[in-house]
Automatic annotation (TrEMBL):
Function: The RuvA-RuvB-RuvC complex processes Holliday junction (HJ) DNA during genetic recombination and DNA repair, while the RuvA-RuvB complex plays an important role in the rescue of blocked DNA replication forks via replication fork reversal (RFR). RuvA specifically binds to HJ cruciform DNA, conferring on it an open structure. The RuvB hexamer acts as an ATP-dependent pump, pulling dsDNA into and through the RuvAB complex. HJ branch migration allows RuvC to scan DNA until it finds its consensus sequence, where it cleaves and resolves the cruciform DNA.
Species for this entry: Chryseobacterium caseinilyticum
Keyword DNA repair: yes
Protein name, entry field: Holliday junction branch migration complex subunit RuvA
Taxonomic path: Bacteria, Pseudomonadati, Bacteroidota, Flavobacteriia, Flavobacteriales
Homology family: Belongs to the RuvA family.
Amino acid sequence: MIFSLQGAVQELSPTYAVLNVQGVGYYVGISLMTSQKLVHNKESFLFIQQIIREDAHLLFGFHTRLEKEMFNLLISVNGVGAVSALILLSTLNLEEIATAILSANSALIQKAKGIGAKTAERIIVDLKDKVQKFKVEGEEISAVVNNKTKEDALSALEVLGIPKRMSEKIADRMIKQNADITTEELVKQILKNI
């Protein structure tokens, strides 16, 4: 079983890469998330999931071990194949997938092309007890993003002459209500609530 590959990126597209490992080119299916981390003709390392079927031996590559773990969880769900899992990983990041599963947000999961309502519900039911670790790590990422959003919004408001201490509590409340709020939206909400 191939666990990982390291070599030069011989070919690169949003859905696959060819990794040249000592003269042998390995065709590896990848997500958009992984594709964005690879550079043509540069040395790269990928975690590999090998799937052996009657008609094919397939390789799927991931930039991080967590992405590989999420892929394996997704393909463990009845009705979710490797391609559907890659499409979902290309549509949403790991934190978004975990959050959607934990909050039973099937509409968000259905944003991935080819995943219907029944499959989304099955993903939620089958994986709700298995994605907690993605969320825990995701919360740290989310907190960093929220701090940046909050700082940017408060700085913008200070330029407008609004003291930081006046808008900080409103910012915290808005971020708690909507963790994915943009800086612009946060500024607008603070201005409305002052």
